Amino acid sequence: MSGRQGGGEIHAGGHIAPVGLYLAVFTALLVLTATTVSVAFVDLGALNTPAAIAIAVVKALLVILYFMHVRWSPRLTWIVAGAAFLWLALLVGGLLVDYLSRPWLGAVPV
After folding, report:
1. If DSSP codes are grouped into helix, strand and coil, which group holds residue 59?
2. Prediction pTM value
3. What is the DSSP string of 17-33?
C-alpha cells in the first residue's frame, strides 16, 4: 500500500518496533512482577497495597505505551488513553473513599 520497508516487506504505514525493544519491555514486566511478589511477602504495614498498586500502574503504562503502540501514536490517541487512565483512577478513588468511610467494617484509613 504505502512504501517498502527494509527486507522487501510492504507495510501500510505505522511504526515497526524492533524485537529487542519488546524483549526489554517483557523483561521489565517480568522483573516488576517478581518485585510485586517480593513486596507481598515483606511486611510494609499500610504501604503494602500502595506499593503493589504503584508497581501495577508502571506495568500498565509499559503495556499501553509499547505493546499497544501508544508511544508512536498521534496525540489524539494519547488523550484518549490518558482520559481512560484518569477515569480508572477516579473509579478506584471513589471505591476507596466509599470503603474507608464505613466505620462498621473496621477499615483502617491509609
Report:
1. helix
2. 0.71
3. --HHHHHHHHHHHHHHH
Residue 6's pLDDT band, with cuts at 50, 70 and 90, is very low
Give tens-digit pLDDT for 53-93.
899 999 999 999 999 888 889 999 999 999 998 999 899 88
Distances (CA, A) of 36 to 25, 28, 30, 40, 65: 16, 12, 10, 6, 20
Q: Are the CB atoms for 102 and 85 separated by under 8 Å?
A: no
The C-alpha cell at 2 is: 504505502
Q: Which amino acid is at 76?
A: L
Per the CB < 8 A criterion, the answer to whether 23 and 49 are in contact is: no
The DSSP output letter for 73 is S
Place of cell 499500610: 46
Tell me the three cell numbers of residue 59. Answer: 506495568
Report which DSSP code applies to 109: P
**Number of residues that make up the chain:** 110
Three-class secondary structure of residue 10 per DSSP: strand
